[in-house]
Specification:
By secondary structure, the protein is an alpha/beta fold. It folds into 2 domains: 128 residues, 3-Layer(aba) Sandwich (Rossmann fold), CATH 3.40.50; 41 residues, no CATH class. Helices cover 36% and strands 15% of the residues. Strands 5-4-1-6-7-8 form a 6-stranded parallel sheet. A two-stranded antiparallel sheet has the order 2-3. Strand 4, helix 5 and strand 5 form a beta-alpha-beta unit. The longest helix has 11 residues. Bound molecules: magnesium ion.
């Protein structure tokens, strides 16, 4: 049994906040077919893939249209050291944290990484080794980022879009994360 983590690191979209509809809306308004849109990527990459200008997307993105998943507010209120590691654009990411009144010790968004997010800069900012943190995310990209960094992973199973892989620790509710890693 691993020791309890010194800090929890969370993905944002699809993990702490239910943002699928908010993320999709600008693409749809810019003429992208719904079925072409995917989740968990760096916004600039997804915009490039879909032929959409990032600034045009951000002008249409409404950070006020997202909500924390049920139970997340209680989870966040009970956290000790915690951080956010997200591929989200920093403009909308920081706006959402501010709106929700969340103050993670570290919040790194797409501008902190050269390409898809990695946990290395988060660990450095927290001044913690990989075995002292747990990463909570909803996509295979999150699982892979945790594996590459040697960090334990918990799947945000409360997101109906999250798909478990063999060996995943799966939290069915946000608060269950704390019991899984205790
Ligand atoms: Mg996500």
């Amino acid at each position: 049994m691993a020791a309890a983590p010194a800090a929890l690191v969370f993905d944002l979209d699809g993990t702490l906040i239910d943002s699928d509809a908010a993320l999709v809306a600008p693409f749809v308004r810019l003429g992208v077919p719904l079925e072409a849109i995917t989740f968990g990527h760096v916004l600039a990459d997804e915009c490039a893939r879909l032929g959409v200008d990032v600034d045009a997307y951000l002008d249409l993105y409404d950070p006020g249209a997202t909500q924390p998943f049920p139970g997340v507010v209680d989870l966040v209120a009970g956290l000790g050291r915690w951080a956010v590691c997200s591929n989200k654009h920093p403009r909308s990411g920081h706006a959402e944290l501010a709106r929700l009144g969340w103050l993670p010790e570290v919040a790194l968004f797409a501008d902190a990484f050269t390409g898809p997010k990695t946990l290395g800069p988060v660990l450095a900012a927290l001044d913690l080794p990989p075995d002292a943190v747990v990463f909570v995310g909803d996509t295979e990209h999150d699982r892979a980022a945790a594996a590459r960094a040697g960090v334990r992973f918990v799947l945000a199973g409360w997101n109906p879009r999250a798909r478990a892989a063999d060996g995943d620790l799966v939290a069915r509710t946000p608060i269950e994360v704390l019991a899984l890693v205790a």
